[in-house]
Amino acid sequence: MTIIALGINHKTASVELREKVAFSPEQMSEALQQLSGHADFNEAVIVSTCNRTEIYCSLEQSNSQALLAWLASFHGLDEHELSKNIYCHQGDAAINHLMRVACGLDSLVLGEPQILGQIKQAYHSAKTHDAVGVKFDRLFQKTFSVAKQVRTDTDIGASAVSVAFAAVNLAKHIYGKLDKTNVLLIGAGETIELVAKHLYQNEPQQITVANRTIERARGLAQEVSADVIALAQLPERLHKADIVISSTASTLPIIGKGVVEQALKQRRHKPMLFIDIAVPRDIESQVGELDAAYLYSVDDLQAIVSENMAAREQAAEQAQLIISERVKEFEMWVRSLDSVDLIRHYRNDVQTIKSELVERAVSQLNTGKDAEKIILELANKLTNRLMHAPTRAIQDAAKKGEVAQLTQLKKMLGIDQE
Q: Which residue in the list 50, 57, 88, 103 is annotated as catalytic?
């Protein structure tokens, strides 16, 4: 059996091609049925996300071309053109790749955890369609176990590696829990949307979204149970915020030193945290000069992100050591299955020989022949039949001068020869 991992991802293909090769939920069922019914393929799991489409398949013989041809045919693509953007791993390399993907080591954002859930979903979908057998069941369970161990034993997911995540982590670092804080988000673009989602998971007491376009802000606010205000309302509402995170496309500062001074007076100088992740800046730098106002810019967050990315890369090296060990363990398990089959076949062959000779001896006894002669004949024939194959192997190895083979045969037959 050969395991193959064939696919494309954000490193090898454009988003346009990734869209063409992706499997929709409706297509997934048909694809798995085709693969499980294909003469060349034994087991198959399809992982399809926005950043990658990968097919993990087991075959009796290595034949990645057949899998590529099927993929191109299924999506109506030119096989030659598709092959330019495809990568293919076989054997240990395929197993190593699967485990790296599950641990987030091959992701666009190093160490991101979402891919593990997507692989689990792909595995369960394949199992539902009877596309997973004993070996793939063991392989994917092993993979899930490795991913859990990497999360537990390394810091691969401990550090923030996006500006949005870093902003929320900074707020948590300063305030501890956020459940008693009021947070004001200024803007409603992609960055603030990510900040809002990270914040929502930390359950702050209140989130308010301020934006020039109220309707745009309402869409975001509904997702995170937030209030909405217009930018013009900032001066009158600023004092209610413990944390202010801003990211707009404004070319001029939205919050000045004077507005913050007034807000601090209304708060009786209770501290405020300002995180400005806009370029150009939304908050005047002079705000940082005020007592009880703590201002962090996008440069401050980028420095945190860079430091954390270096920490994740170090954790990735530790993760790879764990993965390499688990790949070896899986390969040993596969080889043990082969030995079980070998022993079963050998026992069946010996039992067949025994049954044949015993049946013949019983038949001779029933005719009244001498029992001692029959037992001796049975013993001689059984001995000769059992010795035939190893004797031939020893003679062939000796004739070819294969010393290692002879040593292995001696060990296998339990021959203690000086």
A: 50
Residue 274 main-chain phi, psi, to 5 deg: -115, 125
Cα–Cα distance for residue pair 274/184, rounded to 1 Å? 10
262 pLDDT above the threshold of 90: yes
Fold that domain 163-306 belongs to in CATH: Rossmann fold (3.40.50)
CATH code 3.40.50.720 region(s) in the chain: 163-306
Which residues belong to CATH 3.30.460.30 in the chain?
2-153
Three-class SS state of 159: coil
pLDDT bin (cut points 50, 70, 90) of residue 245 is: very high
Q: What is the residue-wise DSSP string for 209-277?
A: EEESSHHHHHHHHHHHT-EEEEGGGHHHHGGG-SEEEE----SS-SB-HHHHHHHHHHTTT--EEEEE-
CA 369 from chain centre, in angstroms, equals 71
Q: Tell me: the pLDDT tens digits for 197-229?
A: 989 999 999 999 999 999 989 989 999 999 999
* Cβ-contact 288, 294 below 8 angstroms: yes
Determine if the peptide bond prior to 253 is cis (ω within 30°).
no
For 78-92, write each residue's pLDDT tens digit: 999 999 999 999 999
The C-alpha atoms of residue 415 and residue 40 are separated, in whole angstroms, by: 43
CATH no. for 2-153: 3.30.460.30
Nearest to 285 by CA among 307, 271, 300: 300
Length of the chain: 418
User: In 343-355, which positions are buried (b, 16+ CB within 10 angstroms) versus exposed (e)?
Assistant: eeeeeeeeeeeee
Q: How confident is the model at residue 40 (pLDDT cuts 50, 70, 90)?
A: confident
The angle formed by the CA atoms of residues 106, 193 and 266, to the nearest 5 degrees, is: 135
Q: Which helix (H) or strand (E) holds 48?
A: strand 41-48
The pTM of the whole model exceeds 0.85: no
Active site residue 50: yes
